[in-house]
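Input:
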Amino acid sequence: MNKTFKIAVIEDDENLRFLLTHRLKAEGYDVIETSDGAAAETLINENQPDIVLLDWMLPGKQGSDICNDLRVNGFENMIIMMTAKAQDVDKIEAYNLGVSDYVTKPFNMDVLVAMLDNKVKFLSNSNTGSDIQRFGDMEHHPNTHSLIKNGKKIELTILENRILLYFLKNVNQVINRDDLMMVVWGYNSDVNTRTLDMHIVRLRKKIEDNPDGPKYLQTVRGIGYKFVVD
Amino acid sequence: MNKTFKIAVIEDDENLRFLLTHRLKAEGYDVIETSDGAAAETLINENQPDIVLLDWMLPGKQGSDICNDLRVNGFENMIIMMTAKAQDVDKIEAYNLGVSDYVTKPFNMDVLVAMLDNKVKFLSNSNTGSDIQRFGDMEHHPNTHSLIKNGKKIELTILENRILLYFLKNVNQVINRDDLMMVVWGYNSDVNTRTLDMHIVRLRKKIEDNPDGPKYLQTVRGIGYKFVVD
DNA sequence: TATAATCTTTAAAAACTTATTAAAGCCGAC
DNA sequence: GTCGGCTTTAATAAGTTTTTAAAGATTATA
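Output:
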């Protein structure tokens, strides 16, 4: 999998925001959201999303103001305006404010997704964004399926990589066996529960100094596992 | 002084092409144009415009074909599709073909100009000079389809050249098999996946000292390949 | 402490992915 | 048309990963 892109959804219509958020998450985007125009700027400045989906008519603060403020504050990523009023003069104003694109409501969700996927493709060349995760004395490089331990590179298989990624996303939390299997094999798989153990064993051999007394990948009997860091 | 941007207008409607050309010239763009779908590709490849305004329904060659061909041949600048039929499914297809944006006819010229001015603003930073790429002890000259290794010239076939170019653009990143095939053969090609292996093998024979233990062109099992430099 | 439930480990089979070879197809230059 | 180089495919080999089964270990608790 490629880098995960972050999208901010700024939309006050609960229904639409829900739809957008869920669909985009399902498409593999990292989504942050707010209905509040005033809160939007903080959210965006703090999270630096790759794309902002911005409703143009918000209660409180106007989309145009938000857009302008963001640009003034040096925000350079993509801002896509969502608007119902598609008068030409508005579009020109929006472009002048630094909007990268607009979509007119109501829009087809499939088209929006195709558009975002497309924009992101052009983005991904210029991105250096590493999502290297560090834990203990190790570095996990999910893109290359590898682990650096004491300066030594250890290759991970696809499943090991996927499992470790999930653990690292949910560090210090007890992870339910079923949830984990769900993440690794998806909805209706009929893989044996023992198979998971197998992968855990192999992962432990790769990451633990003493696989018999795991320091990181601990089992929580009756529930699942817990990835302990610090 | 700012750079002058070059726009190619590919449109068979004499009237509209005239309007576009004159207005864009008046706005300070460098405009090249043709009404002929078949001639469009040559025009674009030779002039490398920053933006292509492409009518989607041309006599002779379809806009979709032109777009696909351009992308496959490594054209990376902006392609804006102009279309009267704005069915959702078409938009999705267009995005998949690598269109950067679309405008629906009839469009307001002021809006188009505002849009182009805006796009150009985001463009102005990036531009490369020579396209000779060096890696390891080699030089890749994509224009002449050749490789200099230890002072010796090695000829590359068109596909080898295209593949290597893509690898060198995405050095040290894991490249998905499908993405690579997409780049090499375009959107809906039905080339066998083994065919790619074949080309990889031959490319390795040309660039690697020891093709069996590749130093540069490494495979990432389950995903694709990675071109490793340094 | 015995028993049941759960987890770990091992080894081997099954499934899958990539590499290689050889042959056929395609296309342009002559 | 024929030749030669490039591309594609098919078949097969080689190498890895994933899964399963079965046995062993551990833990909880009756």
